[in-house]
Write a structure and sequence with these properties.
It is globular, with a radius of gyration of 16 Å. By secondary structure, it is of the alpha+beta class. The protein has a single domain, classed as Alpha-Beta Complex (Nucleoside Triphosphate Pyrophosphohydrolase).
Length: 214
């Protein structure tokens, strides 16, 4: 599999061609949801998509002079779940949101203070089902600099950017595993410097790569 080394303009053009123009609906018979269940060495039943907690995240691509980057966060250590893990900004869908896009924009503003006016939506990935019971819709977008971030310390410890070329190089997509709830579970990991990108975040990055490289 080949690495994708794209400019921001090339990425935007390819994303508009190959991503979903609308968010996937639960139970969509055409787009099978992706997720942790895809990666296991033993058969794992497909999670109940309609029973999962709906959520959305923003995969924000930032054009930079040295090449586009992906905006990521490190969750606060005080959080009850997934503390200190690398994640995309986002969270649960509220009933008033109306769409995963609104959820991703609202949660991103709340977590890191990124104004939604700086966000240009490019498309949507297939839903991602996690082993912890969430159905996540990834919203892929360009974020036009300059912008400044204001972190919500209750939710986010840090925000940082990782080169898109690194994340879209399959040579950096490691398969690792550990025991969880009595079973050996495998997942993607993409360590970058002192940041350990893994689990659902790395899984969604892998799905983005596969969709663009198809």
């Amino acid at each position: 599999m080949r690495a994708l080394n794209l400019t921001a303009e090339e990425f935007a053009d390819l994303a508009k061609q190959r991503l979903r123009p609308e968010p996937p609906s639960p139970g969509d018979m055409i787009a099978r949801p992706r997720g942790d269940h895809d990666l296991q060495p033993h058969p794992v039943p497909l999670p109940d998509e309609k029973a999962a907690i709906p959520a959305a995240v923003l995969i924000a691509i930032v054009p930079r002079p040295d090449g586009p980057t992906v905006l990521l966060t490190q969750r606060a250590a005080s959080l009850r779940s997934h503390s200190s893990q690398v994640a995309f900004p986002g969270g649960r869908v509220d009933a008033v949101d109306g769409s995963p896009l609104i959820t991703a924009l609202r949660e991103t503003e709340e977590e890191i203070g990124l104004p939604r006016a700086r966000v240009q939506t490019l498309g949507f990935l297939d839903a991602y089902l996690t082993g912890t019971g969430y159905r996540i819709v990834p919203v892929v977008a360009l974020v036009e600099p300059p912008f400044s971030l204001i972190l919500n310390a209750h939710e986010v410890e840090a925000a940082f950017e990782t080169p898109l070329s690194f994340l879209l190089d399959p040579a950096n997509h490691r398969r690792e595993g550990r025991e969880w709830q009595g079973l050996y579970r495998t997942y993607y990991a993409m360590p970058f410097g002192d940041r350990y990108i893994w689990g659902a975040t790395a899984g969604m990055i892998r799905n983005l790569y596969e969709r663009l490289a198809d």
